[in-house]
Design goal:
This protein is α/β, with parallel strands linked by helices. It is built from eleven helices and 23 strands. The protein folds into three domains: 177 residues, 3-Layer(bba) Sandwich (FAD/NAD(P)-binding domain); 117 residues, FAD/NAD(P)-binding domain, CATH 3.50.50; 41 residues, no CATH class. Helix content is 31%, strand content 27%. The protein has a six-stranded mixed sheet, with helices on one face. Strands 12-11-10-16 form a four-stranded parallel sheet, with helices on one face. It has a three-stranded antiparallel sheet with strand order 6-7-8. Strand 1, helix 1 and strand 2 form a beta-alpha-beta unit. The longest helix has 20 residues. The protein is globular and about 65 Å long. The relative contact order is 0.15. Bound molecules: flavin-adenine dinucleotide. One of its GO terms (molecular function) is NAD(P)H dehydrogenase (quinone) activity. It comes from Jeotgalibacillus salarius. One of its GO terms (biological process) is aerobic electron transport chain.
Length: 360
């Protein structure tokens, strides 16, 4: 009897699952990809795109084309909810799809309701497919404020600053508001030096609490004027995960075991940002980990249908981070090492382009 695997979301992990599927495969299994967008957008190249170094075609992958080539059903729609008891997903169009196995890779959001006024005022760049359309407002903002002090926030500050420098907007200002150190304790001094050198303003160890029509207000009493504000202060869980009734962690991300399977329902799998690994609850929400989960997820979805042995996902102990600092320079973060230079950018560019070539 034909069995159906529904892949919900065209994120980094599902892209790798699609790559591993061949057109000639088990005819008893039907694969369906439901994606909010026809394209997968590669976040590793967001900074270069914001800076103007890459074109749109260079940072995205046509999921519909891959599906057509590989005989996979492609539905451009948004997953609204899923019902583990009825074993069906409900799409925004109202369509209901029954499944034998469901895999979720729907990423995360950046819409914090903890900061008063931000939800209405921010330029929302996640889910990932929103990013290309939204960056123009940030490039052209006289005062751009980025809330967040992690790798994504720092990298985007460098990129928008660089774009402004090169496009006749030297008098615009980019400001970062970070509730802790810049990236981490080991990177803080390097980032501060670079920010000071480039003229990027920053407030550290201060928390944004409110966004009014004109200012981002911090706990420390700063009133930072803005034309556009972006929140990059951490990933938020899509609400539909918790609404399913399956266990979620304290932030609302769906719990999965080392096989990327939800512990209460062996028919549901999840990976990437939307999943909370019970074996590694502190795993950062990062594309680097999402990509590596693809091989395990691909194997386990098939193995679980065939009742064969499943693989465990073990995250790499240390991830190499190459952070673009604008102007074709980058900072390498690896364990306790911090190194800066043009060579790091060329290395990052090579890795990112090679990654894209695998799928394009
Ligand atoms: C500005 C920025 C820069 C970043 N840079 C890096 C970096 O350089 N390196 C790195 O490792 N990480 C980076 N990250 C983090 C990285 O983006 C995420 O960790 C990564 O995208 C997670 O991959 P994913 O597969 O979970 O989901 P995503 O790649 O986000 O994909 C999820 C997909 O699901 C779709 N979707 C969402 N909801 C639904 C729904 N209900 N139904 C159907 N489809 C849906 C979305 O449109 C999206 O295409 C960055 C993040 C940001 C915000």
């Amino acid at each position: 009897m034909m069995q159906t695997i529904v892949l919900a979301g065209g994120g980094h992990t599902h892209l790798e699952v699609l790559r591993r599927l061949t057109a000639e495969r088990d005819t008893e299994v039907k694969w369906i990809l439901v994606s909010a967008s026809r394209y997968h957008y590669y976040s590793g190249m967001f900074s270069g795109f914001a800076e103007g170094l890459y074109t749109l075609e260079e940072i995205r992958i046509d999921l519909k084309k891959i599906c057509t080539d590989k005989n996979i059903d492609f539905i451009e729609d948004t997953l609204q909810s899923f019902d583990p008891e009825k074993r069906e997903v409900v799409l925004s169009s109202g369509e209901r799809l029954p499944y034998d196995r469901l895999s979720l890779d729907i990423g995360s959001h950046t819409a914090p309701d903890k900061i008063e006024g931000l939800t209405e005022k921010q330029v929302q760049i996640k889910p990932a497919h929103l990013f290309p359309d939204r960056i123009e407002a940030c490039r052209k903002a006289k005062e751009l404020v980025i809330i967040g002090g992690g790798a994504a926030a720092v990298e985007m500050a460098f990129s928008f600053h660089q774009w402004k420098q090169q496009n006749g907007r030297k008098y615009d200002r980019v400001t970062v508001i970070a509730s802790s150190d810049l990236i981490d304790q080991k990177s803080d001094a390097v980032i501060e030096t670079l920010f000071n050198h480039k003229g990027i303003r920053y407030f550290k160890n201060d928390v944004a609490v409110k966004v009014t029509d004109r200012y981002v207000v911090t706990e420390g009493g700063e009133e930072v004027s803005y034309n556009e504000v972006i929140f990059l202060g951490g990933a938020q869980a899509p609400e539909l995960l918790g609404e399913s009734g399956l266990p979620v962690d304290e932030k609302g991300f769906i719990k999965v075991n080392a096989c990327l399977q939800t512990p209460d329902d062996s028919k549901v799998f999840a990976a990437g940002d939307c999943a909370a690994l019970t074996t590694h609850p502190e795993l950062p929400k990062s594309g680097v980990y999402a990509v590596r989960q693809g091989e395990v997820l691909h194997h386990n979805l098939m193995a679980s249908l065939k009742r064969e042995g499943m693989k465990d996902y073990t995250p790499q102990r240390r991830a190499l981070i190459l952070l673009s600092a604008g102007g074709k320079q980058a900072l390498m973060l690896y364990g306790k090492w911090r190194q800066f230079g043009s060579w790091a950018w060329w290395w990052k560019d090579y890795i990112d382009r090679s990654y894209m070539k695998k799928y394009q």
